Amino acid sequence: MSVELTIPHLEKLGKAGTDFLGVRYPLISGGMTWISDSSLVKAVHDCGGFGVLAAGNMPPELLAEEIDRCNAIGGSYAVNLITIAPNYAAHRKIVVEKDVPCVIFAGNFPKRQAVEEVKAAGSKTVSFASTISIAEQQIRFGVDALILEGSEAGGHIGHVSLTILLQQVLFHNPSVPVFVAGGIATGKMIAHLLLMGAAGCQMGTRFVMSEECLAHANFKERFVAARARDAVSTPAFDRVRLPVVAVRALHNKGMQEFGTLQMGLLQQLDDGSLTREEAQMKVEEYWMGALRNAVVAGDIDNGSLMAGQSVGLMDRVQPMAEIFEDLLTEAEQELSRVRELL
Ligand SMILES: Cc1cc2nc3c(=O)[nH]c(=O)nc-3n(C[C@H](O)[C@H](O)[C@H](O)COP(=O)(O)O)c2cc1C
């Protein structure tokens, strides 16, 4: 269903973002492993937003099929590649061979050669940046845009909140468009982030709460009931011996099990039965499996309920078109209000 609105202020402020993304509205549905498939890309695209296909660690042949489905939709979208996924090399080969409008590197920072290779194949490239030095490094590597994601976000997160990242990176006017993510779920917030200079906003949790999202009903029900403070981040028990990327998810038994897993891995590191890299790989395998368990199988006790703190800003599942209408109308109203104020 298409979303047609008269939003002159938003159109003006969001122009850099919409030009870059090649869509009508400067809203990105962030790639979410096991969740962001070609059907979610289509639902977002149909509403005028920018859909992202999450490669996660899916079998390479499935990724190829999913890319074909996204291309059949006939618009702009991105493939989200996780640089620390075991299938990353195979995934990269596929996006280079196929016709993919945009690639978003996640997980870790892509090497210069990866950025150059993907660009040479004709895709735009986007990287996450959590400090000004990383932003500068990624721009030197040639990325076409950045995403600042604050620690309020769901899934794998950095340690710094969006409020700080805006001041550290966005306010220094990097030479490429900067999209922002983490804790965004209202049109008012989108309006103010655009006023601050963001090219557009990426949301994850908000789009899990769409009717079109294929996540298990149990998963969505927990989102509906959750408060912001229920979305907690995991601790790292030993940042030196076992550096683990923090994950924000709704607290449950699965979250507690991650603590037990870390303790076990540290013991194996001590007795030399595992290397640090092997232990880190086991951590990532744990998250991929646990998320699948919750999203696909609906096991909301033992699986991982990755969610941002923005989960506390929503209380119902809505059709995608309604989500877009709510966000865009509220953003436009807020921009008109600010204009009056000035
Ligand atoms: C269930 C879930 C899975 C996610 N998986 C990924 C992923 O595979 N790759 C990625 O770059 N970001 C991932 N994210 C982050 C989202 O793309 C997005 O940046 C984030 O959700 C923004 O914060 P919000 O949830 O407050 O909107 C995930 C988020 C959630 C909630």
Note down, in words, how this protein is organized.
The chain is an alpha/beta fold and 342 residues long. It contains 14 helices and eleven strands. It is 45% helix and 14% strand. β5, α7 and β6 form a beta-alpha-beta unit. α3 runs parallel beside α4 and α4 runs parallel beside α5. It is globular, with a radius of gyration of 19 Å. It starts with 7 loop residues before the first helix and ends with a helix. The model has no long low-confidence stretch (mean pLDDT 95). The site of flavin mononucleotide has 28 residues, from β3, β9 and α10.
Features:
14 helices; single chain; 8-stranded parallel beta barrel; 2 domains; TIM Barrel; alpha/beta; 3-stranded antiparallel beta sheet
Could you give a quick summary of the protein structure above?
By secondary structure, this protein is α/β, with parallel strands linked by helices. It has two domains: 8-215 and 314-341, Alpha-Beta Barrel (TIM Barrel); 217-309, no CATH class.
